[in-house]
Amino acid sequence: MVAVICLSGCAPYLAPPTKADATVYVLNTIPDGSVEAHALLVNGKEIAALASRQYTWFQVSPGTYSFAVAGGRDQGGRQSALELNLKPGVTRYLVYDEEEQDNYLIEYAQDHANRWLQGARYVRNSVPR
User: Which residue of 26, 53, 90, 116 is surrounded by the most CB atoms within 10 Å?
Assistant: First the structure.
């Protein structure tokens, strides 16, 4: 029997490269004090709920998509939205960031997002294609 031990330094579960689809990562960077999971919606359909230090990724056909996060009670129930035109072969990184006053769903640069992915936990999703 082989046991695999993964400490906080383990590599995150990453999307396979693709040239035809767009790849989107969504990370919840809200501090650990937030126990509620926040619903992630793509084109109005909930695909995942991410708690603190969790992330998901998915690949979709190119096009314009609406992303929204429904905040829990600890966020005053507010909803944050972002619309993006996704291009083939391009990866985008979206982050829940409670320090943003106007819209706490924002886009991060790859290097900044990669730092957050270290030690974060992957959550499965149900992406509408």
Answer: 26
